[in-house]
Design brief:
It is a single chain. The chain is mainly beta. Strands 2, 4, 5, 6, 9, 10 and 11 form a seven-stranded mixed beta sheet that branches. A four-stranded antiparallel beta sheet has the order 1-3-8-7, with no helix packed on it. A hairpin with a 6-residue loop joins strand 5 and strand 6. It is globular and about 40 Å long. It starts with a strand and ends with a strand.
């Protein structure tokens, strides 16, 4: 079955960096668009960034534009999220998600048909 496993979360200081990874299984990774989303305490799930199946197109939420970089290595079956200039408000549980082949947008929960279990990112001094 489809599985997505995230790792790389942890504790970072404000201004610091972390790189998240997501390894999929159970489907042909290179044929699907993918995204990262996050859930902060007391807030709704927020789409963070998306990337097309071949990696040529990337999209970002305004709140992370210029600080986060999404990428993928289809040969290694891995999705990445490089997070720089981290802020306390970036603290959240980060999920990778597979975009549905019939999705019409990038930022809606219903655009995705598979989710990982999440990896915690905490930004604090």
């Amino acid at each position: 079955q489809v599985q997505l496993v995230e790792y790389g979360g942890g504790l970072a200081q404000p201004g610091g960096s972390l790189r998240l990874s997501c390894t999929p299984s159970g489907f042909t990774f290179s044929t699907y668009d993918m995204s990262w989303a996050r859930l902060a305490p007391g807030k709704r799930l927020q789409w963070v960034s998306g990337i097309s199946s071949d990696g040529t197109d990337t999209y970002y939420a305004d709140s992370v534009e210029g600080r986060f970089t999404i990428s993928r290595d289809n040969a290694k079956n891995t999705l990445y999220l490089q997070m720089n200039s981290l802020k306390p408000e970036d603290t959240a549980l980060y999920y990778c998600a597979r975009r549905s082949s019939v999705a019409r947008t990038w930022s809606g929960v219903s655009d995705y048909d598979s989710w990982g279990q999440g990896t915690q990112v905490t930004v604090s001094s």
